[in-house]
Design goal:
Distance between the termini: 47 Å
Number of strands: 0
Radius of gyration: 21 Å
Largest sheet: none
Strand content: under 5%
Length: 134
């Protein structure tokens, strides 16, 4: 008789599950997943991957919808940073620096994406849109 638990254990033989911070580590076999340190490791690992992908432009997109969302988020964060004296009075300096950093990174991603669209030219953009629409 085949035990379904054996199949699950084979999945968890992956070495990624043995590294603190990687997804799946805190819910590995024999653990409940409620350890606060494991949760914080996984959360900080996820934040680091997002920050690295924003800086290295791994989230680069030619989709206008996603660009407008990134633009809105980046400008919103920068807007709150420009009104810093209100943010400083309400929440403190850490919030002000954090919002400015994320806003600047998001806006940099938008500007680099717009620059790449201008660099590609309109004929190649039409070809990309035709490929996405099928």
């Amino acid at each position: 008789m085949i035990n379904p638990r054996d199949d699950i254990r084979v999945e968890f033989d992956n070495p990624d599950f043995q590294l603190p911070g990687w997804p799946g580590y805190r819910t590995r076999p024999g653990y409940s997943g409620y350890d606060p340190l494991d949760y914080q490791y996984e959360y900080s690992h996820f934040q680091g991957r997002i920050m690295r992908s924003l800086i290295t432009r791994d989230w680069h997109t030619n989709n206008l919808f996603f660009k407008s969302i990134l633009d809105f988020v980046g400008l919103t964060f920068l807007f709150f940073n420009l009104l810093g004296y209100i943010g400083l009075a309400l929440t403190g300096l850490f919030y002000l620096v954090n919002m400015g950093l994320w806003g600047a990174i998001g806006l940099l991603g938008i500007l680099l994406s717009i620059y790449s669209i201008i660099w590609l030219g309109f004929r190649e953009i039409d070809a990309i849109l035709e490929d996405e629409n099928g």
